Amino acid sequence: MRRIGAPWTGAVLRIAQGVTVVGMALFAGPVGVLVAYLLCYVVHGASNPVHTGLLHRQVESGHRTTVLSLNSMASQPAGAIGLVALTALADATSTPTAMLVGAVVIALAAPLYLVGRRAPEQPAD
After folding, report:
1. Is it the case that residue 118 has pLDDT exceeding 80?
2. Could you tell me the residue range of the domain that residue 95 belongs to?
3. Going by fewer Cβ within 10 Å, which terminus of the chain is more open, N or C?
């Protein structure tokens, strides 16, 4: 994070999480799925402090609790919608197909981390 910055780190970790979900979808056998799951769990755990840190930096101290709460409240229905949609997709196609779609959705969130980058300071005239 010190080398590329928090926004880029968040984006890279989100893509890495999508890749690990692809691993769970494609690896055959319980050992392959378990290894991919553990890698996904590690990447998810690493991305959470980056995500929360970016939220802290973008919001004034008086509103941080509200923003963190809104972040949590937005993620709950999104997860529920994803659960229903991916379950229906898995039923209609296959579990690996649903997991690949989920991986793409996770990875597509990566550019959102770059939106919050601060503009460079402009020199005073």
Report:
1. no
2. 6-115
3. C
**Structural domain includes residue 55:** yes
Instruction: For residue 78, tell me if it sits in a domain.
Output: yes
The answer to whether 68 touches 52, Cβ cutoff 8 Å, is yes
pTM of the model: 0.80
The total number of structural domains in the chain stands at 1
Interval 80-102 mean pLDDT: 95
Q: Is the dihedral of CA 71, 77, 81, 87 positive or negative?
A: positive
Has residue 74 been placed in a domain?
yes
Question: 12 near 113, Cβ under 8 Å?
Answer: no
The pLDDT value recorded for residue 57 is: 84
Domain assignment present for 18: yes
Q: Which residues contact 98 (CB under 8 A, 6 or more apart)?
A: 86, 87, 89, 90
